[in-house]
Design goal:
Layout lengths: L21 E9 L5 E9 L18 E3 L8 H17 L22 H9 L18 E3 L4 H7 L1 H5 L2 H12 L12 E6 L17 H14 L5 E7 L14 E5 L3 H10 L2 E3 L4 H9 L3 E4 L11 E2 H6 L1
Parallel strand pairs: 3-4, 5-6, 5-8, 6-7, 8-9, 9-10
Antiparallel strand pairs: 1-2
Helix pairs in contact: 1-3, 1-5, 1-8, 7-8
Length: 311
């Protein structure tokens, strides 16, 4: 069975043909004036580990790296933060953390929305921030690199990077992860991306329910001896998920970003959606990850959903 392949960016002009070996990667950077700029890098990703660094400026050996100020959702921003830390280490540079400035998907306009995300990723207590750098040392801190594009083009080096292992530990450090699921099952998290009030993008949110039902059935077969319990994470009306109401499926609809993301990270098995949210959870996962193709490159050890369904 074939599934929708989202290796084309949704903003790509209609009529263009995607190459099986190319992914269009965009960096969305909010400038100091609040404007959105785009940097595009088209790069081969199959069996090639390219050094793709669009718009990079390296002229000073003391130049350090930070993540750019952004305004997208949590998953996209955390993905960029992770990529920037890894980039800094691979280039023997100091990394300084730039805290969250603004973020999409604050549906209830909670005043502590950003503060909760800072506590959740746990970076401020473990990285020097840009504001606290010793200015007397003449640091030049930049975020001119398309960190996501670099990560995608050098995914093998990034997957085995010390900084990524460190981030996994930092993320888990301030959370009660022992017996998180509190059961004897094999816990399988599945992300079904659906349109939401802040993002009505169709690509990635239109994967049919039938695809996910087939994924669940295949995983039931593979893990039948381990008592699989499926945790389905999505947004919308509960009535739209009637097809998934079975004894071995727990619906997590419209739950908090923190609860949803942590469940995905800690699950024994994760099925990512065509979304930076679950993709980033996959980067931090220590479990088995099944990947639905979209415009960010999977880690080499992740498993293909297409192979799962066609196997």
């Amino acid at each position: 069975m074939n599934i929708v392949n989202y290796t084309q960016h949704p903003k790509k002009l209609a009529g263009e043909t995607a190459s099986m070996q190319k992914i269009l990667l965009y960096l969305f950077v909010f400038t100091a004036f609040g404007q959105l700029s785009y940097v595009e890098c088209a790069t081969k990703v199959r069996n090639v580990d390219l050094h793709c660094k669009p718009n990079e400026v390296i002229t000073n050996p003391k130049q350090d790296e930070t993540n750019p100020k952004q305004g997208e959702g949590f998953g996209s921003q955390f993905q960029t933060i992770i990529a920037s830390v890894v980039y800094a280490e691979l280039h023997n540079k100091k990394y300084a953390y730039t805290p969250f400035l603004m973020m999409a998907h604050n549906y209830d306009k909670n005043s502590d929305f950003i503060a909760k995300k800072e506590q959740f990723i746990n970076f401020i207590d473990h990285f020097e921030t840009v504001d606290n750098l010793d200015r007397n040392k003449n640091y030049i801190v930049t975020s001119n690199v398309n960190y996501k594009a670099f990560f995608d083009a050098n995914v093998v080096a990034c997957a085995n990077n010390h900084s990524l292992k460190m981030i996994k530990g930092i993320f888990r450090k301030n959370k009660n992860i022992n017996n998180y699921f509190n059961n004897e099952n094999l816990n399988i998290a599945i992300h079904i991306r659906r349109p939401n009030p802040h993002d009505n993008r169709i690509q990635g949110a239109d994967t049919p329910d039938l695809i996910f039902l087939n994924i669940i059935n295949r995983l039931r077969e593979i893990y039948s001896s381990k008592k699989p319990l499926f945790h389905l994470h999505s947004q919308g009306n509960n009535e739209n998920f009637k097809a998934f109401k079975t004894e071995d499926i727990v619906l997590h609809i419209n739950e908090s970003i923190e609860d949803t993301f942590l469940s995905m990270v800690l699950a024994d098995v994760l099925v990512t959606g065509a979304s930076s949210f679950s993709y980033t959870a996959g980067l931090l996962s220590e479990g088995t990850v099944y990947y639905i193709p979209f415009w960010h490159t999977p880690f080499p050890h992740w498993l293909s959903v297409e192979m799962l369904l066609n196997g």
